[in-house]
Amino acid sequence: MPTIVVEVMPKAELLDPQGKAVAGALGRLGQTQSALANVTGVRVGKRFEISIDGEADATTLAAVRELADTVLSNSVIEDVVGIHVQDAPSSAVA
Amino acid sequence: MRIGVVTFPGSLDDRDAARAIRLAGADAVALWHGDHDLHGVDAIVLPGGFSYGDYLRAGAIASLSPIMTEVIDAANKGMPVLGICNGFQMLTEAHLLDGGLIRNEQGRFICRDQGLRIENNASDWTNGFEANAEIVIPLKNGEGSFMAPTETLKMLEGEGRIVARYLGNPNGSLNDIAGVTNARGNVVGLMPHPEHAVEAGFGPDTDAAMASGIDGLTFFTSVIARTLVGA
C-alpha cells in the first residue's frame, strides 16, 4: 500500500524547547559516553505517514501537499521539510 | 444577552466560563463542538483546556470541528468571540487571529497569578477597562509563547491590536504579548484566564484581601455593555 510521508519541523529561527531538553539529556550522557561528546544540538519534529489506496499520482500528491501546508503544519511556527512516497508504512530498521 | 460557551472533547474551563458569564449578568448557553448550531447566541467564548489532548498542535483539531464553521462565519460578520488559552490557540489555528503559540521557552507548564497591562481598551471584550489598566488574572499553560513573523508583529503593534501585555514575560512571548485582537476588534485571544478571577474569595490575592481579585470580570461585562449599545 503506497504511503506518503510528510515531515514537519519547528521553524529553525524559533526556540525548540523540546529539542533543547533532549539535547540537555544527551549532553549529560556525553560526559560518560565519548561518542556523544560532539553532539551540538537536537531539534524535534513530526513525521506523518498517510496510507492510500491505489497510485500516489500527481493529483493525490498535490492534495497531500495542500494538506501538509494547511493542516499537518502551521506555517507561523513550522515548516514542511519533506514529502516523499514509499511502498508501505515504515517498520523498524534491521 | 446570551453568550455561548463551546465544549470540545478535552475542554476544562467551559463551566468556569459559563459561571463568569452569569456573574457578569448574561445568560450562558452551552454549545457543542459537534453541532452546526449557535442557538441564537449574541457572543461566543472558546474556553481553555486540552482539546483533543493537544494532538497535532494545541487547538488544531478543534479548529476543524463542525461548530467552527458557524463560529468563523459569525466572527467574520462581527459577532464577539473570546478565545481563552486553548481557545486562543484555536483562533490562531482557524486564522481568525494572527500569530501562533509554541511551548513556553523554559519548557515548563506555568501556573500562577499574572500581571497584565490592557493596551487596547476598544475591543468588544476590553472596552470596560481604563486605558493601560494593570490587572492580575491566573495564567496556566504549557504552550503560551506567542510567535509571529516580524512583519505581522509590526502590523499588530502598528494597528494597536495588542490587547494585553505581560508585566514580566513568563514564557518567551514576543513583545510580551498575552493577547491580541483582529482588525475589527470583535475577536480576542488571551492566554491568561479571566474566567478564574470573577468572584471575591476565589480569585488572585490583592493588597486588600486574600483571593479577592475579580479583574477578569471586566472582559465579560465589556462584551455585555458593547452589545447593549449596539442593539
TrEMBL record, chain A:
Cited Gene3D superfamilies: Phosphoribosylformylglycinamidine synthase subunit PurS (3.30.1280.10)
Predominant cellular place of this UniProt entry's protein: cytoplasm
Entry-linked InterPro entries: PurS (IPR003850), PurS-like_sf (IPR036604)
The keyword Thylakoid belongs to this UniProt entry's keyword annotation: no
EC number: 6.3.5.3
Subcellular location(s) of the protein: Cytoplasm
Catalyses which reaction(s): N(2)-formyl-N(1)-(5-phospho-beta-D-ribosyl)glycinamide + L-glutamine + ATP + H2O = 2-formamido-N(1)-(5-O-phospho-beta-D-ribosyl)acetamidine + L-glutamate + ADP + phosphate + H(+)
Keywords: ATP-binding, Cytoplasm, Ligase, Nucleotide-binding, Purine biosynthesis
Keyword Magnesium in annotation: no
Catalytic EC class: ligase
One GO CC term on file: cytoplasm
Pathway in which the depicted protein is active: Purine metabolism; IMP biosynthesis via de novo pathway; 5-amino-1-(5-phospho-D-ribosyl)imidazole from N(2)-formyl-N(1)-(5-phospho-D-ribosyl)glycinamide: step 1/2
UniProt record, GO biological process: 'de novo' IMP biosynthetic process
Pfam short name (any one): PurS
Any one GO molecular function term: phosphoribosylformylglycinamidine synthase activity
Family that this chain belongs to: Belongs to the PurS family.
PANTHER family in UniProt: PHOSPHORIBOSYLFORMYLGLYCINAMIDINE SYNTHASE SUBUNIT PURS (PTHR34696)
Summary of subunit composition and partner proteins: Part of the FGAM synthase complex composed of 1 PurL, 1 PurQ and 2 PurS subunits.
Function recorded in the entry: Part of the phosphoribosylformylglycinamidine synthase complex involved in the purines biosynthetic pathway. Catalyzes the ATP-dependent conversion of formylglycinamide ribonucleotide (FGAR) and glutamine to yield formylglycinamidine ribonucleotide (FGAM) and glutamate. The FGAM synthase complex is composed of three subunits. PurQ produces an ammonia molecule by converting glutamine to glutamate. PurL transfers the ammonia molecule to FGAR to form FGAM in an ATP-dependent manner.
HAMAP family reported in the protein's UniProt record: PurS (MF_01926)
Protein name in UniProt: Phosphoribosylformylglycinamidine synthase subunit PurS
Taxonomic path: Bacteria, Bacillati, Actinomycetota, Actinomycetes, Micrococcales
UniProtKB/TrEMBL annotation, chain B:
NCBIfam families recorded: FGAM_synth_I, PRK03619.1
UniProt cross-references to HAMAP family, sorted A to Z: PurQ (MF_00421)
Keyword Transcription regulation: no
GO cellular component annotations of the record: cytoplasm
Keyword Ligase listed: yes
UniProt KW keywords: ATP-binding, Cytoplasm, Glutamine amidotransferase, Hydrolase, Ligase, Nucleotide-binding, Purine biosynthesis
Residues of the active site: C85, H193, E195
MF (Gene Ontology): ATP binding; glutaminase activity; phosphoribosylformylglycinamidine synthase activity
Catalytic activity: N(2)-formyl-N(1)-(5-phospho-beta-D-ribosyl)glycinamide + L-glutamine + ATP + H2O = 2-formamido-N(1)-(5-O-phospho-beta-D-ribosyl)acetamidine + L-glutamate + ADP + phosphate + H(+); L-glutamine + H2O = L-glutamate + NH4(+)
Source organism, top-level taxon: Bacteria
Cell compartment(s), UniProt: Cytoplasm
Biological function: Part of the phosphoribosylformylglycinamidine synthase complex involved in the purines biosynthetic pathway. Catalyzes the ATP-dependent conversion of formylglycinamide ribonucleotide (FGAR) and glutamine to yield formylglycinamidine ribonucleotide (FGAM) and glutamate. The FGAM synthase complex is composed of three subunits. PurQ produces an ammonia molecule by converting glutamine to glutamate. PurL transfers the ammonia molecule to FGAR to form FGAM in an ATP-dependent manner.
A GO biological-process term: 'de novo' IMP biosynthetic process
Subunit structure: Part of the FGAM synthase complex composed of 1 PurL, 1 PurQ and 2 PurS subunits.
Pathway where it operates: Purine metabolism; IMP biosynthesis via de novo pathway; 5-amino-1-(5-phospho-D-ribosyl)imidazole from N(2)-formyl-N(1)-(5-phospho-D-ribosyl)glycinamide: step 1/2
Assigned EC number: 6.3.5.3, 3.5.1.2
Identification of the protein by name: Phosphoribosylformylglycinamidine synthase subunit PurQ
InterPro entries, sorted: Class_I_gatase-like, PRibForGlyAmidine_synth_PurQ
